[in-house]
Amino acid sequence: MNQKHDTTKTIPTQKTQKQNFSQNLKKNTQNVFQRLESDPGSLQYNDIMQLQKMVGNDAVTRLLSGKQQSFSRRSINGFLQRNTPKAPIIQGVFKSESEIRKEQFVEEAKAKGITDPQQIDKLYAEARKDTPDEDPLTKFEVAADRKPTVVRAIEHVGNSITEKAFYVEIDVRNLGGLNEALGRSEGEKILITATQKAHKHINQLNSKGFVGSFRHGGDEFSFVVVGEVSLEEVEAKLTAAENEFAEINKTQVKGTTVGSIVHLKHKSQHGTAITWGVSTITGESDVGDVLSTADQIVELKKSFAALDTPQTQDPEPEQSSDQSQESQAPPKKKKRKMDKFDVDLTQKFYKRMIKSFSLQPKDVANGAILEHALNHYSTYDEGKVNAKNYIYKQIKAIGSLKYALRRKKDEMKSQEELKEAEFVKFAKEQGIEDDSIAKALFKSARKDIVDPVTGFQPKSSLSGTIESAITHVGAMGGEHRAVYVIAKLKNLAGLNHIMGANGTNNIFAEVATAAEMALRSELSQDGLHISDFREQGSKFSFVIVGRILTKGLVNAVLEKAAKSIADINKERIKVYNSSSEFAENTIGEKVIHPKKANQKGTGLAFGASNIEAEGDVSKVTATAQKWMTKRDV
Fold first, then answer.
1. Which of 41, 253, 498, 605 has the fewest beta carbons under 10 Å from its own?
2. Residues annotated as region Disordered (predicted)?
3. Is 443 contained in some domain?
4. 16-30, 116-130, 446-460, 598-612: which range is least confident on average?
5. The predicted structure's pLDDT at residue 433
6. Same domain (yes/no): 73, 198
7. What is the H or E stretch that residue 149 is in?
């Protein structure tokens, strides 16, 4: 007897699907970990891929190789409970850093009661006038937005099942040779052509998600691609751009065939080309690895691949014997006196500078500066320019000193604080009387300026702050003194090797904060002003101004702080040893310097130098750097 079977299927709800996804992922991953511990040889390719998705490629590599590494202060125990996703998250639209920054500023302004779009735009433009959102030459996003975009791409694809992300780095070959042969302006035109060709092709993927474009370095630019795209699609677009740009070698610029221009370093290569590298971004990627992988691919291609374009020599015009002899003699540099027009223009510039700095002729020695400029620079070809530069520097120095004397005696501001004061003044002109609202808007527009690890000011503000301290010390007539300190976290590379980027960043922030807290507490006094800065790599610095302040006192405070910071070497971490077991070891035992085998652990090295009136910024920083190097042993 035939029985009827119900052919209808129960379609699981979205909630049920998410629950099943989480349960299966957790169960399968636990199984793989058990097999890894009991029988590593039984693991298949898919098992390794699953582990990479869960704990990252670096962690899996360390597990399988048995090297003595740590897991950023985490053991596998409890890893699944902390890190297994409960359900896939549906992501919103991926946006650029500048878009997000502007949206957050608009929200901040509206929260403060400012609703006029034009007024908001003016305030935003003023707050960021020294930090534009795009590169003026290529119109790409600025280099500072590249790394944060990659970080968000990592988070984005980590919470998505269907979307992928890729980082693309592109190098324009022989840009230096082009600049030398054709001039900088023509070289920049070729660079722009390269960016346009690459952007035209890669931006075709924008319909599938997001494409971000970034200018960084003289001949380098990059893209971040996020969406339902594949590696093959990205590479196909880049190949098309590479082939199209190669046609430029057949063109002539100023009578020279581009393909005939010799590479400055590799004399066997001619012309130009774009060389690209792609790295895949996953939810477990490390931002440093993403950037370095693409860069290494580019460098590898550059070192092995000669340019495809053949050498095309331009015909040289025949020279007569007389012309040949003349060409061998170096041209004589003609000296010239400044004509009447130059003198008048310089005098007008001098008067304008005096007025702009609110000075009187007597403040600048009744014309002695102008007289020196005209007499000293009048015989040089660039006399007008040099005279103007001299006048500007001399009057600015006097004007800054006079301005400092008019300020409150205890007032010292960093470059960023001075910019904030300018913005507050601008906001008042826009009808915003409350200084706290103006300061909140200023900080909102410049969130990307602050170092994300320490919260310190950027290195770009350091020189201006030291200059401000030099002026301040001179204006106070000895009542205030200033000291510059540069410090570094010892053995950053060793920490990265063992602790990973996140673990190292935590330690860096801890050490930098401890150093600043020690300075603020031990040097506590009326008029104390400390500006903090994140410098490159393992370094950070401070500009300190106060009444009771000497370099020796600062050194004593930091020596005491360094001894306290050294206790971090006693911290115990979990490491995976060669016996396939987890063991506890201290940072001081297991963090070995990659170049100095006798150095273990980490610590604080620092150097200090006095900031004096009439001081020189470069000498101040160089002196402190020298003392820090001596302590970095």
1. 41
2. 1-23, 306-338
3. no
4. 16-30
5. 93
6. no
7. helix 146-158
Assess if residue 206 is contained within a domain. yes
Q: Hey, which residues does 171 pair with through a beta bridge?
A: 220, 275
Distance CA 63, CA 79 (A): 14
Alpha helices in 183-219 (DSSP H): 184-202
Looking at the fold, whether 77 and 148 belong to one and the same domain comes out as no
Whether 532 contacts 516, CB under 8 Å: yes
Q: Tell me how far CA of residue 487 lies from CA of 455, 541, 578, 605, in angstroms.
A: 16, 6, 36, 6
pLDDT tens track for 76-95: 333 333 333 333 334 468 88
Strands 274-281 and 457-458: unpaired
Which distant-in-sequence residues (6+ apart) come within 8 Å of 533 by Cβ?
A: 456, 457, 458, 459, 461, 462, 465, 540, 541, 542, 543
- Measured over the CA atoms of residue 65, residue 66, residue 67 and residue 73, the dihedral's sign is positive
Phi, psi angles (nearest 5°) of residue 348: -65, -40
In the chain, the amino acid numbered 574 is K
pLDDT at 612 over 70: yes
Indicate the SS3 state at residue 280.
strand
> What is the per-residue pLDDT for 367?
64
Give per-residue burial for 426-445: e unless 16+ CB within 10 Å, then b: bbeeeebeeeebbeebbbbb
Backbone torsions φ then ψ of 15, nearest 5 degrees: -65, -40
What is the pLDDT, as a whole number, of residue 309?
A: 42
Q: What is the pLDDT of residue 474?
A: 87
Contacts of 304 (CB under 8 A, 6+ apart): none
- Pairing between strand 539-546 and 481-489? antiparallel
pLDDT at 252 over 50: yes
Domain boundary among 56, 83, 110: 83
Domain that holds residue 547: 450-631
Does 601 lie in the same domain as 518?
A: yes
Tell which residue, 492, 488, 490, 503, has the closest CA to residue 571.
503
Query: Which of 208-217, 336-345, 526-535 has the lowest average pLDDT?
Result: 336-345
What is the value of pTM for the model shown?
Answer: 0.59
Report whether 607 contacts 515 (CB < 8 A): no
Least confident range of 15-19, 358-362, 384-388: 15-19
Q: Are 298 and 353 within one domain?
A: no
- Pair 300, 344 in one domain: no
